[in-house]
Amino acid sequence: MSAPPAPLFVTLADSLERQIRDGVYRSGDKLPSLREIAATRGYGKNTVVSAFELLVARGLVEPRRGSGFFVKEAVPEAGESADNPSRRRAMDIVWLMRMQLRNEPGQLAVGDAFPPSEWLAGARLDRSHHKVARGGLGALFRYGDRLGYAPLRHRLVRRLADVGIAAHPQQIVLTHGANEAMDLIVRYFVPPGGVVLIDDPGYYPLLGKLHLAGARIVGVPRLADGPDLQALEQALKAERPRLFFTQSLAHNPTGSDLSAPKAQAVLRLAEQHNLLLVENDALSDFRPATAARLSALDGLERTLYLGSFSKSLSAALRVGFVACSADLAQDLADLKILTVVSSSEYAERAVETLLAERRHARHLEQLRAQLAEATQSAYALLDRMGAEVFVRPAHSLFIWARWPGFDDAQALAQSMLDLDIVMAPGNIFSVDSTRISPWSRCNPHAVQDPRFARALERLGGTPP
């Protein structure tokens, strides 16, 4: 089977890289302008911008404000990427993350991973500052507790109990979002060359962390009701991994939920093969307390439970946590000291203040109602487009969809980028990002913007 053709921006980046390494452009030379390359090669502006940003991620060129892009003074040797392929793959994922975090005027982020900002306004972050400042003047000028702000950890104990997870405050470590929790776990458990299982498709920033650690990543196919059990068992027997990173509920990117029978089966396999399960439940506020969670069934024996407030309060607060055994929590807290000293007590106090407000329950109820309405409307629109939807929960921040006539979501995303539509193609969520995928992650609110349907129709898609 022949390899899939590379997207245009990758082809352009590779061409410019060859010229840099061959000496056509030397250290310090300015590259042709975006306009010049677009005109001479017939590419759209966004394609050229993407290629230049990929060269920046590869460490070959640097932007200079108001002047353009220049070849770096010390370009890595041609063999350097082969000597450190994990770092190269990690930096390419960083570039993909930068593309997803883009927020340029006029662009529509169809693949966005967050609710609209106006939906989160009901949390009233603007009212928390004075309460936080008044209540913590003695502590806000120093590093906080190594485990994190104690009142928030006590509140989390109660919230975890609501979803069936029994924990003690000493079993909870607060972090800079769920992403830092993952980073600490990878640093603690994964040696270079260590085998790690992850959902496939799965959370692509995790892929970058694992590549950076030099891990060998094995994907477990994600089905509509959770991991493919046969593939999971085969991987456990063949690879003998220590960790499996998975999302039981509101899975990113597919939106799927783990079924109760499959949860029991996963735990049986974990016990048989001495496997630790890292359960990312960053969207816990969007799923019922009674939904199947591995950590609730296991009691944090073989599970590490990750949470976050980015999707229901604010990503800017950067507050997350990991709940695990008490001994492991102490070790992770020590590792946190070595890497970042402490998490932000100010942000943690802000979250605790918001969670304590009487209006917080109303905010979550309204947020779920808005998401449910948007999800059902998005399903109806996608049906009119003739799209296939992977799974259809009543409300979901992620819709995994594909459109007839577009078998390569990466190529579709590149064409859409030239029309100021930013998509999240399925291959970036895969362990093998070179594999062609027809699927894309869609935000149920953003996908309803008329600009998306017009752009898809312009590219030959079915009008709604």
Features:
Arc Repressor Mutant, subunit A; 13% strand; 16 strands; 4-stranded antiparallel β-sheet; alpha/beta; 464 residues; globular; Aspartate Aminotransferase, domain 2; Aspartate Aminotransferase, domain 1; 8-stranded mixed β-sheet; 3 domains
Q: What can you see in these coordinates?
A:
The chain has 464 residues and is α/β, with parallel strands linked by helices. The protein has 3 domains: 8-83, Arc Repressor Mutant, subunit A; 106-119 and 362-458, Aspartate Aminotransferase, domain 1 (Alpha-Beta Complex), CATH 3.90.1150.10; 125-356, Aspartate Aminotransferase, domain 2 (3-Layer(aba) Sandwich), CATH 3.40.640.10. Helices cover 44% and strands 13% of the residues. It contains 18 helices and 16 strands. The strands form 4 sheets. Strands 4-11-10-9-8-5-6-7 form an 8-stranded mixed β-sheet, with helices on both faces. The chain has a 4-stranded antiparallel β-sheet with strand order 12-13-16-15. It has a two-stranded antiparallel sheet with strand order 1-2. Helix 10 links the parallel strand 5 (195-200) and strand 6 (216-223). The chain is globular. Residues 79-83 have low confidence and may be disordered.
